[in-house]
Amino acid sequence: MHPLKIEIQELLARIEKLESKPRGGAVNMVQAARYLGLSEETLRREHARGKGPRRSRRGSRGWSYAYHDLDRWLLGRQTESAASRQPDRADSPDAA
After folding, report:
1. What's the pTM value of the predicted model, to 2 decimals?
2. What per-residue confidence (pLDDT) applies to 9?
3. pLDDT at residue number 5
4. Are the beta carbons of 29 and 63 closer than 8 angstroms?
5. Strand order in the sheet with 62-66
6. Second label for 93, Cα 20 to 30 Å away, from 6, 56, 60, 79?
7. What is the mean pLDDT of each run of 10 residues along the chain (96 residues)?
8. How far apart are CA 64 and CA 86, in angstroms?
C-alpha cells in the first residue's frame, strides 16, 4: 500500500478515536483557534464583531474556551453557511 494512504488511514483512526472521547475542560485562545481551524487573528476579529464563541476570562489578560462552546459555535457557523447557500424560494422559477 502507498505510504500516503497508510498515513491517511492512521490519521483517520486518530480522528475517530478523538471524536469518540467526551470533551471536557477548556483551552486558551491559541488552542481554541487551532481547534477551530482559524488563525488567532481571525478568532480575535470574530470576537470584535461580536460573533466569536463563548469564552471566560482567565486571569487578567487571557481567555478560556470550553470545548462544548467551541463545538456549538462551529455547528452554528456550519448551519449559517448551509442556509446562505440555499436558493431563495421567491427567486426560483417555480415560485410563480
Report:
1. 0.61
2. 92
3. 92
4. yes
5. 26-27, 62-66, 56-58
6. 79
7. 89 78 81 93 96 92 91 86 66 55
8. 34
Evaluate whether 36 touches 69 at the Cβ level (below 8 Å): no
Give the three-class secondary structure for 96: coil
Pseudo-torsion of CA 67, 70, 76, 80, nearest 10°?
-150
**Helix locations, 1-96, DSSP H:** 3-20, 29-36, 40-48, 67-85
Nine-digit cell string for 86: 440555499
Structure confidence at residue 91 (pLDDT): 56
DSSP state of 3: H
Contact 52, 46 (CB under 8 A): yes
Give the model's pLDDT for residue 16. 79
User: Which residue reads 447557500 in cell numbers?
Assistant: 85
What is the grid cell recorded at 76?
452554528
Phi, psi torsion values for 58, nearest 5 degrees: -120, 105
Reduced to 3 states (helix: H, G, I; strand: E, B; else coil), residue 5 is helix
